[in-house]
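Supplementary Note 2. Why include the ligand at all?

Several targets in our set were suspected to adopt different conformations when bound, so apo predictions alone were not considered sufficient. For every target with a known small-molecule partner we therefore ran a joint prediction. The input for adenosine-5'-diphosphate is given below.
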Amino acid sequence: NAVSAGVAPILTKLKHDCATPLPLLRHVADAMAADMRAGLAVDGGSDLKMILSYVDTLPTGNERGLFYALDLGGTNFRVLRVQLGGKEERVIATEFDQVSIPQELMFGTSEELFDFIASGLAKFAEKEGGKFHLPPGRKREIGFTFSFPVRQTSIDSGILIKWTKGFAVSGTAGRDVVACLNEAMDRQGLDMRVSALVNDTVGTLAGARYWDDDVMVAVILGTGTNACYVERMDAIPKLQGHVSPSGTTIVNTEWGAFSNGLPLTVFDKDMDAASINPGEQIFEKTISGMYLGEIVRRVLLKMAAEGALFGESVPEKLSTPFVLRTPDLSAMQQDNSDDLNVVGSILYNIAGVESNLSARKIVLEVCDTIVMRGGRLAGAGIVGILQKMEEDSTGLIFGKRTVVAMDGGLYEHYPQYKRYLKDAVKEVLGLEKSKNVVIEHTKDGSGIGASLLAASNSKYE
Ligand code: ADP
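The joint prediction is reproduced in token form.
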């Protein structure tokens, strides 16, 4: 019933190549801090773009009134309204709606896509009533979360650099996406205005800050990954002309592009070479949900081919890229049964193989190796951001309570990943410093966050 001897050396080498001992994590944290600095110095100065968000005013809790949010970041767009009642009443009411974007619009023209969005927004706005009230003489204000690469030009404008995530809409690249939306709202006869254009990470930070003044960093770990944080204006040399009354602004790191000092294997390199963006987003490819399952699949395929992990023949389905998904890894790792029957049935359903107990144990070891590396490197990245902030203002981070707001399906639904991440943060920071650092999950902060940013950047205050 044992697994062939050919598997053991592959597993040993994998563990060796994926190891993340403390010195390596320290090095990654230091490199993250250094890359942040280089990206703040000049545009193009580092792997990290360090994009200025123009969000200089974060929610305080005092916001009042009716605000809308619009979220476009994938195959759905979401609309939301919130009635805010200040410090006492907080969120009096929220309503939201989700509309899936028809496939053909992802390949159509800019006008078609934005008309569809504006008409969805118009339908939603029509149903406003009950606890939602707009003071007379005001327009409805929108926080627009737009999760594609944008060169922000002010809090309420930004140029689309390129579509990603399967969108190939003609006529938007190089244009201000807020203007595109405004024109479509005009065509619909919809009289609303965008007060804040934000990245989803920035929305998450704003949403979390509304409830907790100590939130300084937000991290998303879902299909992809990104992080943003509160930066001092005088720590941004590349900044030209922009003045923030608060003296601080949120910087979107685009940390998925980080690549310094990561422990990569042949499986990572092959996956990267076969990807649509070879050489790019290396940190994202090592730690985020889109890729963890695929890395494991590549390891198992090699073990099947060279070590007969699943018997004499290589299961055909295991050769299909991305058949094994990160939620499958998580489901397998939650299997506590003696015979690992959940692992067995997932392998059967996905790869069409009958596995014995020792093969299932090997599969779990591979999952754990890849997930541990991902979680620990994400943790080291977080420490890098905290370290950079502390270096510039001693005591700002480690001298008081500091909250890192976390969101995304990977962090939320993969308990082992979350554990490895948190443990790595503690390990790198040490007992004393880590006492003050709280890593906290904020559920669905980014939608409310965008509407809060519409409120804190309202044209009427
Ligand atoms: P997105 O990042 O696509 O905007 P989410 O934050 O909801 O959306 O993240 C979805 C991603 O989270 C999935 O692509 C998957 O990688 C990961 N994920 C979802 N469910 C699970 C799960 N049960 N276990 C592990 N990872 C999961």
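The chain has two domains: 1-52+212-445, 54-198. The chain has a mean pLDDT of 95. Comparable summaries for the other entries are listed in the accompanying table.
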